[in-house]
Every structure is written in structure tokens, then in C-alpha cells.
Amino acid sequence: MMKRISRKRWLLVISSVAVAALLLAGLTCYFFPQLVLTVDSGPVQADVLVVLGGALDRPQRAAELFQAGEASLIICSGYGDAAANEAYLTNSGVPMASISLEPQSTTTQENAQFSIPLLHALGARRVIIVTSWFHSRRALACFEHYEPDIKFYSRPSYFGYPRPAPGAGIKALAGSIKSEYLKLLGYWVCYGVCPL
């Protein structure tokens, strides 16, 4: 005859499993942020690349993808970065006629909101988002959230992936990763942008 598990013991088992799952999730986030934060769609053909401002690795990656033929048009999005990214791209061989600027956005949410009218004007149906690896999940989620009728892909740069060598900017990268976890949660709570 099987013993019946008491309700108290059952709650203890469930609580223990929940704590273990949270601990495992926390350790994964800390030791393997690339598994949590990175979304890479792999090689795709799209109409437009949207390169987000914020770091030099992003226009470098956009230039690589343009040269590989993944898209024939590029939007540089970001206040203070759009023109600099355009200059980098033209110096890398991207024709100026292939580049549009969105120079007003100051957040990832605004990158999406302000770039979407440009994407519509260009007739884009398939779009690649180019950003840093640790920013790729939130950036992709924002664009998908604000324009579900366009198919978005993520092709991040991999600077500092998974972690740079000691003394090579580890503190700055670690700060960006910690900040990204908070921003993921904040965007979900404040704007309804689900990161999953």
C-alpha cells in the first residue's frame, strides 16, 4: 500500500524544486549570458538592415552583412550615432544611396518606433536587426512588438563574446550585461515587450 504524501511535504517538494530552478536560472544568467541574451537568426535574405547606434561593432557587422548580400538597404538608427555609422558604412564600401538615417531615437524602444515608418516607406517585409550580441534579444523583441506584420531577424555582432580577455574591457562589458537583464525586465513590465 502506497503512503500518501502529506500536503506539507508536497509543498516542501514543490518549493525545493522552484528554488533549485531559480538558482539554476540565476547561475546560467551569470555564467552564460550569451545563452540567455543572444538571438542569432543565422544567414537570411532580407530587404533592409537596421543598425542600432551604441557601439562600433554594430556598423562593422552591418557592413559585413551588406557585403555578404543579406540585404541591399541599411537604416542607421540612433541619436548621435546614425551619421557616424553612415560614415563608417560608406568608408566600408556601402553606397550612400543604400543608406537611410533615423537620427532621433535615444532608446531601443524608440529605435523600433522611429524606424518602422522608414521600413514601411521602403516597402520592407523582411528586416535584419544589427546590434551587439547582449542587446539582440531585447532589440528583436521591441521591433516585433511594435510591428508584428514585418518579419524581423537578428544578426548580432560578437565583440566580447562570450567574455573578453582579462583587462580587455571586461568591466564595461559586465556592466552592459547586468544592465541588459534589468532592461529586459523593465521593457516587459513597462511596455509589454516580452523577451521570450
Quick synopsis:
The chain has 196 residues and is an alpha/beta fold.
How do the helices and strands line up, and which of them pair or pack?
Blueprint: H1 7-31, H2 33-37, E1 48-52, H3 57-67, E2 73-77, H4 82-91, E3 99-102, H5 108-121, E4 126-130, H6 136-146, E5 151-154, H7 170-191
Parallel strand pairs: 1-2, 1-4, 2-3, 4-5
Helix pairs in contact: 3-4, 5-6
Summary tags:
196 residues, alpha/beta, Rossmann fold, five-stranded parallel beta sheet
How would you explain this protein's 3D organization?
Helices cover 50% and strands 12% of the residues. By secondary structure, the protein is of the alpha/beta class. The chain has one domain (36-158, 167-191): Rossmann fold (3-Layer(aba) Sandwich). A five-stranded parallel beta sheet has the order 3-2-1-4-5, sandwiched between helices. Helix 3 packs across helix 4 (82-91) and helix 5 packs across helix 6. It starts with 6 loop residues before the first helix and ends in a 5-residue tail after the last helix.
- Measured between the Cα atoms of the first and last residue, the distance is 44 Å
Low-confidence stretches: 163-170
How many extended strands?
5
The number of helical elements comes to: 7
Helix vs. strand class: alpha/beta
The radius of gyration over CA amounts to 20 Å
Write the CATH homologous superfamily: HUPs
**Helix content range of the residues, please?**
40-55%
Q: Summarize model confidence as the mean pLDDT.
A: 85
CATH architecture: 3-Layer(aba) Sandwich
> Overall 3D geometry?
elongated
Helix and strand run: HHEHEHEHEHEH
Residue fraction in strands: 5-15%
Sheet of most strands: 5 strands, parallel
User: How many structural domains does the protein architecture include?
Assistant: 1
